Amino acid sequence: MAEPIPFSAALRERSSGAHSGSEHSGFMADLLQGRGTRDDYIALVAQHCDKLTRLPALEADLEFLIGPDWREQVEALPTTARYVERIERVGATWPGGFVAHHYTRYLGDLSGGLFIGKLMQRQFGFDTNGIGFYLFGDIADPRAFKEVYREQLDAAPWDAAEQERVIDEVLLAYRFNTELFEDLGRAKQSSAA
pLDDT for 41-89, tens place per residue? Predict the structure, then answer.
């Protein structure tokens, strides 16, 4: 009899295409391939949810990139507002929903964020200022952190139906990410016109 696939492996497998798709949307692909501008990067950083526990790093990045009055200069795009509303709604009422968005933000940001941070560092000449959100100084070994995180996912007392529901929520989170990159691309085009 074959061993059942651990929940974390099923989640990773089922969401990998959505994660990859969001990173390869026009706006993000341009940014990652060196065709984006510093302003494009600033627009992306300004759309991160302010409820993340890495808020001090995000605020420091925005102050460095925009200035001390950054709060008056940034505005959430429609997708960001919908995304935040979704996180607040499911996070407050459904543990699996909270975990789905936590997984997307933290494991996604840890996996891709280290890469994005290094790219932005090279592309725009940043040292650590401006990319603090993508630095994980309190995580000595990202690979070990992710392994423990996945072990904890596997230990969650969810039946198959609840696991499927969590996977669907992760896919929805990635869809929000893709839509955000599309919003950023449209905003860039309209400001260039």
Answer: 999 999 887 555 678 899 999 999 999 999 999 999 999 999 999 999 9
* 12 marked as binding residue: yes
To which residue do tokens 């509303």 refer? 85
Total domain count, the chain? 1
Q: Please tell me the distance from the alpha carbon of residue 94 to that of residue 138, in angstroms, as a whole number.
A: 28
* pTM reported for the whole predicted model: 0.87
Query: If DSSP codes are grouped into helix, strand and coil, which group holds residue 136?
Result: coil
CATH code, domain carrying 86 = 1.20.910.10
83 is in an annotated binding site: no
> What distance in Å separates the CA atoms of residue 20 and residue 82, rounded to the nearest whole number?
21
Answer yes or no: are the C-beta atoms of 134 and 41 closer than 8 Å.
no
